Amino acid sequence: MVQVSDWALGHLLELRRPRMNGLVFAGIGVGIAGAGLIALGLMSAQVDSDRTWELLGVVSIILAAAIWSAFRKTAGEKRTPRARSRSPRTRWNRDKIRIALAYGAFGFGYIIPATYLPAMARHYVSNPIAFGWAWPVFGTAAAISGYLVSRWLNAANNRRGWAIASLLMAIGVVLPVAWRGLGAILIAALLVGGTMLVLVTAALREAQIVSGKRATDFIAAITAVFAAGQIIGPLIVSALAHLAYGLDAALLAGAAVLALAAASLWRSARPSERTKT
Asked: Could you read off the pLDDT of 15-29 as tens digits, one per residue?
């Protein structure tokens, strides 16, 4: 994710099309929705999980081969050698720590519903064709929001946009606790999936704003914090699973962390932080 983000954002800057970065990240949502629809179709055909994994692997190889040429230099383009120099280490301050923790809160808050929404849907509906729609809804919402965010965030305060998206995700995370049923789970998938790429795009833009041209190291650092949040979330669910309302407690914790991050980001936003791209 670090390498792809750095390559994509840098390449779009070279092409003078930085507003397209949200559209690039919409590909994540397209992939999630596509994988979910393939799984739904195979479930309808009563194909077992082993064959499904194999087919998804083949599809991935085909897609990788189709885009491979994008990473090659064109025949007429000369490769310019880069001078080797030691890039300075990321200098941490209170604001950078805030951004890293907010991105980690996103990883923690989103991974719990992203991991357990299908299982929750299965609890209410035994038909896999019905509860299997959680992932296509999630992915479609992510793809659409990825496209819209490429336009919206350019005209909005980046950090406040991140805060609003965090709060909407928190609502999606806590919704299945307050409202039991498949409808709540599908709306939660819509809210969590619809804000996921907004948060990714806003966080990476913010990393570039506070780190300047040498943002790669800082993006790598906050992605590591994000990954730590993704690890901690399922561990907490596992620790609480034996309790009567263990999953509810984990969802509430995820929503609370996201809400705290939203409050911190909103308070720290300044008019000068509007994106100029």
From this structure: 777 667 667 778 888
2-73+93-273 under CATH 3.40.50.2000, yes or no: no
Contact 113, 173 (CB under 8 A): yes
Give the pLDDT confidence of 160-205 residue by residue, as tens digits. Answer: 889 999 999 999 999 988 887 778 888 888 898 889 888 988 888 8
Domain ranges of the chain: 2-73+93-273
